[in-house]
Design brief:
Blueprint lengths: L1 H12 L6 E5 L2 H5 L7 E2 H7 L2 E5 L6 E5 L2 E5 L5 E2 L6 E2 L2 E4 L5 E4 L4 E2 H11 L6 E17 L10 H5 L3 E4 L3 E10 L10 E8 L5 E9 L4 E7 L1 E5 L6 H4 L7 H8 L1
Parallel strand pairs: 1-17
Antiparallel strand pairs: 1-8, 2-7, 3-4, 3-8, 4-5, 5-6, 9-16, 10-15, 11-12, 11-13, 11-15, 11-16, 13-14, 14-15
The structure holds zinc ion.
Length: 252
């Protein structure tokens, strides 16, 4: 009897196995124009089965699903890039959802986030999110590869392509980070989309989920940050000042 109680306690602490977020570089470095792929897709795929990011030279939006990396290019084409392709920024987790619900009616992005908030009661925790289903509206974007000298992200994002994809079946992946992560990652929700046919996707700007969509969340209690080494663009970037306003501009 005592043994059974101990096992339950370990499971409910949520720290056994999954739940470790691995992040490659920082969002402020990306905002500052550090687009060199100091890490590679193989590393990202090994570190998690769900996540998002971008690619060397800012060449498209990354979706990680099932340890596979997908590259949504700015022309809308979705590729399976080689493991050697670089990435300047990515966040992944070994996703093992601890809560699941089905949407009972059509939900706007705002309403959906409010519903997910109810499943994620710790405002200071990191949550991974996956949502599968049909979307009557899905507005995404992707950004084209940049040339050196790299512009900062606000300027680069002006060249983004916007896609109106709905109605469409697919999967939303991403995270809700707490406000105190603001220089490292994106506070609040940051979500990317991959269609069921794996032929379209991108960074989500807006969406409406139809009823019956399955929402899964996981509270992540471990966080590992991998930084590029000395000598490259990361070590020369100016990362002292608060870039919250620039982040608002490019991520929403
Ligand atoms: Zn994004």
């Amino acid at each position: 009897m005592k043994k059974a109680i101990l096992v339950l306690a370990l499971l409910s602490c949520g720290c056994a196995g999954g739940g470790k977020v691995t992040q490659f570089s920082t969002i402020d470095a990306l905002l500052a124009g550090v687009y060199d792929g100091d890490f590679d897709c193989a590393q990202v795929a090994r570190a998690g089965n769900l996540g998002l990011g971008t690619f060397d030279r800012l060449d498209g939006e990354m979706v990680v699903s099932g340890h596979r990396v997908y590259q949504v290019k700015s022309d809308g084409v979705v590729l399976r890039p080689p493991g050697s392709l670089g990435t300047p920024f990515a966040t992944v987790v070994n996703f093992r959802p601890d809560k699941t619900f089905k949407t009972s009616s059509g939900l706007s992005m705002r309403a959906l986030e409010e519903q997910i908030d109810r499943l994620c009661p710790n405002p200071n925790g990191i949550y991974a999110v996956r949502l599968s289903g049909r979307f009557s509206a899905m507005k995404t974007r992707s950004v084209p590869a940049q040339c050196k000298p790299y512009p900062d992200l606000v300027v680069a994002a002006e060249k983004q392509t916007i896609f109106e994809l709905g109605p469409i079946d697919g999967t939303v992946v991403g995270f809700r980070f707490p406000a105190y992560f603001k220089s490292l990652n994106v506070p609040g929700y940051h979500l990317h989309f991959l269609s069921k046919s794996k032929s379209s996707g991108g960074h989500i700007l807006g969406m409406t989920a139809e009823s019956g969509s399955v929402v899964q969340v996981q509270e992540c209690k471990r966080f590992e940050l991998l930084l590029p080494g000395a000598g490259g663009a990361f070590s020369k970037a100016l990362l002292e000042h608060d870039r919250s306003r620039e982040l608002q501009q490019v991520e929403r």
